[in-house]
Q: What sequence folds into this?
């Protein structure tokens, strides 16, 4: 049986890390696509040359031709521009919308059966645009953000509690931006919810609030340190977890930017929600109950995403 084919659209910082992780985990053969000549070819060759040392069986190739992604089972999109210090994700809207148009058309022409994971920012609006331009079923086009935001939250919590990151679960909803909603009630250490841990004296409400805010600012913290680009190791690991869930039909419950029409009181919007990912793509959006204060935070986040999508509708990507 042939190995699955994974197409990475964008061979920059995240794209290269995705290729390395996909190869090490033997998820399939990898095609790296980029408009920059030599970059995808160089990264593919470099990673392939690590194969004998790492001991993986996966073919890697780099290309500047969309025809080479033909028949891909998974496409992960990082094409575009990352932010620099002082920029918000939303500042990338116009330029990355234009990129989503060409990427969407490339996927539509050459890999219409793929499960497509968008990472390009501003995430929720870009995944909406990618679905529009590719015309693929909404359940096969998703955005990666929640897994990363939850991973950041889990990491900070594990430091606060001095416990293994493996035992910390976290739940983050809403758009991938300043209004994201880390849900403390649904976040736990080995099943013990965070509010209970505050009562047990493991931390204080003030410290927990500070960790929630650090999670919201997690991307900006790294941009501020790197100065030349944004995070790429943890974003790549997060998207690989989603790709693996699809390729191996794992039915994982992962938060991601999915098309929601009916659940959580929403009708027709891409936003971060809990989903089940399996061989069918987004197989289910999990319709959780929110308390009044949680619902208010989620509504605010949904409104921010709606505003960005409306802004996209007003931009002609040919002129962006
Ligand atoms: P970077 O290293 O600049 O790579 C982007 C690549 O896209 C470059 O190699 C470009 O040549 C390529 N590219 C530009 N235009 C096109 C095009 N039209 N077709 C194909 N390739 C093109 O950036 P990066 O890998 O660090 O980040 C990529 C994107 O991910 C940015 O938009 C970031 O803001 C975003 N990002 C999202 C998250 C989320 O959690 C959602 C986290 C971190 C970064």
A:
């Amino acid at each position: 049986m042939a190995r699955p084919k994974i197409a990475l659209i964008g061979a920059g910082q995240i794209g290269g890390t995705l290729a390395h992780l996909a190869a090490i985990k033997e998820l399939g053969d990898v095609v790296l696509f980029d408009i920059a000549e030599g970059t995808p070819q160089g990264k593919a060759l470099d990673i392939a040359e690590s194969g004998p040392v790492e001991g993986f069986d996966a073919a890697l190739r780099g290309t500047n031709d969309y025809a080479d992604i033909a028949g891909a089972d998974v496409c992960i999109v990082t094409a575009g521009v990352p932010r620099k210090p002082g920029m918000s994700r939303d500042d990338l809207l116009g330029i990355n919308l234009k990129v989503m148009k060409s990427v969407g058309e490339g996927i539509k022409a050459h890999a219409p059966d793929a499960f497509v994971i968008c990472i390009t920012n501003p995430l929720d609006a870009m995944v909406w645009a990618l679905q529009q331009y590719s015309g693929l079923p909404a359940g096969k086009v998703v955005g990666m953000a929640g897994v990363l935001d939850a991973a950041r939250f889990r990491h900070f919590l594990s430091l606060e509690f001095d416990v293994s990151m493996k035992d910390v679960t976290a739940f983050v909803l809403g758009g991938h931006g300043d209004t994201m909603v880390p849900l403390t009630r649904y976040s736990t250490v080995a099943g013990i919810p965070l509010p209970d841990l505050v009562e047990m004296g493991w931390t204080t409400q003030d410290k927990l609030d500070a960790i929630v805010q650090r999670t919201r600012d997690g991307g900006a913290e790294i941009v501020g340190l790197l100065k030349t680009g944004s995070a790429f190791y943890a974003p790549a690991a997060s998207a690989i977890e989603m790709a693996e869930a699809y390729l191996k039909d794992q039915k994982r419950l992962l938060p991601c930017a999915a098309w929601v029409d009916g659940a959580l009181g929403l009708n027709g919007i891409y936003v971060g929600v809990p989903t089940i990912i399996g061989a069918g793509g987004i197989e289910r959006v999990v319709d959780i109950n929110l308390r009044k204060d949680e619902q208010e935070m989620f509504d605010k986040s949904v409104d921010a995403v709606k505003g960005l999508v409306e802004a996209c509708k007003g931009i002609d990507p040919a002129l962006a």
Observations:
- The chain has a mean pLDDT of 96.
- The first helix runs from residue 13 to 24.
